[in-house]
Amino acid sequence: MTSGLALIVAAILAPIAGLHFLWALGTPWPFNSERLLAQAVGGPGLDPKIGPTAKCGVTIVAAGAILISAILPLFYARVLPSPLPYQLVFWLLAVQTAVFLLRGCLGYMSLSAMPQIEPFRTYNRRFFNPLIIALGLACAVILLAD
Q: In the chain, how many domains are there?
């Protein structure tokens, strides 16, 4: 069961990481402009003080973190062989689980530091938060089912 759940988590997160890599390269797809993209996903393009190089760097770091988040459950469920010690993978996945659950829950609170612009605010409440909480719960099941 955990290997199937790990594959589902990876199948959700890997394309999201790919989208972030595309955005880092300057492609606003599926939006028509960088401004619309930033407003929809709450990205670094919202801050006019952040230059293009910094935007690219921040987005690449985000893409890399999302890709690692896709791979960790696969390592822990032994779907892929891990180059890391199993105990380290356990703790990294535990931190990932906590971050997902915390991020998903904080997105519903107005005290969050996340941008409150539209359409990000609506997308965050309707789509991003539930998905992130579901991913956190899936990671928790992977950890606890072992």
A: 1
- Cα–Cα separations (whole angstroms), residue 111 to 22, 42, 99, 105: 31, 16, 17, 11
Give the span between the Cα atoms of 39 and 67, in whole angstroms: 23
**How much is the pTM?**
0.90
Q: Would you mind telling me the total number of residues written for the chain in this entry? A: 146
Domain that holds residue 81: 2-144
Instruction: Kindly compute the dihedral angle of the four CA atoms of residues 39, 99, 13, 134, in this order, to the nearest 10 degrees.
Output: -90
Q: Rounded to an integer, what distance in angstroms lies between the CA atom of residue 89 and that of residue 95? A: 10
Which H or E run includes 15? helix 2-24
Q: Residues 14-42: pLDDT tens digits?
A: 999 999 999 999 899 999 988 898 888 87
